[in-house]
Amino acid sequence: MQNIYNYSLIDLEKYFESINEKKFKAKQIYDWLYIKRINDFNLMTNIKKELRQNLKENFKLDFIKITKIQRSPLTNKYLFELLDGNFIEAVLMRHDYGNSICVSSQVGCNMGCKFCESGRLKKVRNLETYEIVEQILLVESDIKERIDSVVIMGIGEPFDNYNNIMNFINIINSPYGTNIGARHITISTCGLIPKIKEFMNCNLQVNLAISLHAPNNTIRNSIMPVNKAYSINELIECLKQYIEKTNRRVTIEYVMLNNVNDSIDNAIELSHLLKGMNVYVNLIPYNETSNIIFEKSNKETILRFYDTLKKNKINVTIRREFGSNIDAACGQLRAKEGEKI
Ligand code: SF4
Questions:
Q1: Which residues of the chain are in CATH 3.20.20.70 domains?
Q2: Which part of the chain is CATH 1.10.150.530?
């Protein structure tokens, strides 16, 4: 039996048609689930009794549950327990322009980025769509406010769970559901080229962010094993095609690791690599963890790197540091929970 939060509006309409019911019932169900936030078929009073019975027999309404929340003024970090006992996490960030959430897409991750806490915990499985949708619903009900934007950048490589992620986007983007605009949704990938190409042909207004983190193959190979499968040059070539096809700007994520990728030479090399491309670089101060050997670059080094990119006419920002005091680097809360068990 499927969880109903796995269903896009179109799939639900198809279901109703398949049982000879009018397809507008799907919108009524969406209204109960996503607007009124009722997750009990018995309470869906505008649905006739026999149909409610049919829904009870064919759909689950199970929810993952919040098991821990770490709160700070600008950031909340949520640890969720899935129905099978696995843990995932999401981070809420409060910006001047609204609430943004970073959701997980897998239990663990197989990409093995050396600086990443989630990469230490190998992939156990992909998240089902409902497990990603419910991260948003539960956080909204905790803060009693709306989530305005979504970044798929928590635990996991979203393009390694491509179909469920596309379905998730379809659901949260629905004007009859949570109605989060496509331009307010960002997928962050470490660079799975075949999936970037597939995504580029979907004609979605969703943003793409690339975890680049290095200006050349030598450094990238040493911190991101995925680079051995899809080299930096192939990735940049693919991004050029993506930008040409979609006419959309791509975000380049670059985590600043002390003495690894943060020299002036590295900044110059990165500028050459990205020259003339419609990208902006997001420099991320590294969240140090107790388990991983990397250190964060110091402030002056980050500013020097930033200035060098600027001088070379690359759009660049430095990400505000969110929640290093509450383990907001991806995988950290879950890793701690895992250690306790
Ligand atoms: S940085 Fe992202 S892709 Fe890399 S191991 Fe961590 S979760 Fe996976």
A1: 65-340
A2: 2-60
CA of 110 from ligand 1 middle (Å) equals 8
Query: Ligand 1 pocket, 252 CB below 6 A?
Result: no
Cα distances from 334 to residues 69, 285, 317, 337, in angstroms, run 12, 21, 29, 5
Q: Please tell me if the CB atom of residue 118 comes closer than 6 angstroms to any atom of ligand 1.
A: yes
Determine the distance separating the centroid of ligand 1 and the alpha carbon of 226, expressed in angstroms.
10
Tell which CATH architecture fits domain 2-60: Orthogonal Bundle (1.10)
Candidate CATH numbers 3.20.20.70, 1.10.10.60, 3.40.50.1820, 2.30.42.10; the one for domain 65-340? 3.20.20.70
User: What pLDDT score does 117 carry?
Assistant: 79
Percent share of the chain, pLDDT over 70: 93
Say if residue 127's pLDDT is above 70. yes
Instruction: List the single range of 21-30, 63-72, 323-332 with lowest mean pLDDT.
Output: 323-332
The active-site residue, picked from 234, 253, 330, 339, is 330
- Cα–Cα distance between 261 and 247 in angstroms, integer? 29
